[in-house]
Amino acid sequence: MTTNWKLGLGFSLLTVFMWGLLPVALKVVLDVMDPLTISWCRFSIPALIAPCCGVRAQAAPN
Question: Which residue blocks in the chain are alpha helix, DSSP H?
Fold first, then answer.
């Protein structure tokens, strides 16, 4: 396996961007929803998406 530093850098920058955007998005969303509902949505939506990614990764040929 070769290292692809450009891909890693891209993922790192995407992570930094998303973490930086989170407080701004929460400030906007808190005007509409309560904190418990926001937390529930933040954790339940990825919990539904993650198994689909796992099944797709197992089905991919090596």
Answer: 5-29, 35-59
